[in-house]
Amino acid sequence: MFHSAFVHANLSWTLGPFKYLLATPVFHRWHHTSLAEGGNTNFAGTFPLWDILFGTYRMPKKELPDHYGVEVS
Predict the structure, then answer these.
(1) Do 32 and 21 meet the contact criterion of CB atoms below 8 Å apart?
(2) Which of 21, 44, 46, 72 has its CA 20 to 30 A from that of 56?
(3) CA 32, CA 42: separation in Å to the nearest integer?
(4) H, E, C per residue of 2-69
């Protein structure tokens, strides 16, 4: 429960080099963006290593998503 609350917190924490070992709020934000911005990425709930292995990891340096939500066509 703690980790779920942590990744959904409004924090800009990346945990430095540990960002590859444990999902962070910034990592999870990219999952909730539009598809064009990167919403089809960062599926791992806890361990980003899975996204790294499957090519779905996205966490640009010093950049945060412009908006969040679900696209409606």
Answers:
(1) no
(2) 72
(3) 9
(4) HHHHHHCCCCCCCCHHHHHCCCCHHHHHHHCCCCCCCCCCCCCCCCCHHHHHHCCCCCCCCCCCCCCC
Closest C-alpha to 30, from 12, 5, 16 = 12
In this predicted structure, what is the pLDDT of residue 73?
62
Pull the structure tokens for residue 18: 């540990």
Given pLDDT bands bounded at 50, 70 and 90, which one contains residue 36?
confident
As a whole number of Å, the CA-based R_g of the chain is 12
Question: Residue 61, Cα to own-chain centre: how many angstroms?
Answer: 12
Q: Tell me how far apart the alpha carbons of residues 42 and 46 are, in angstroms, rounded to a whole number.
A: 10
Separation of alpha carbons 9 and 34, rounded Å: 19
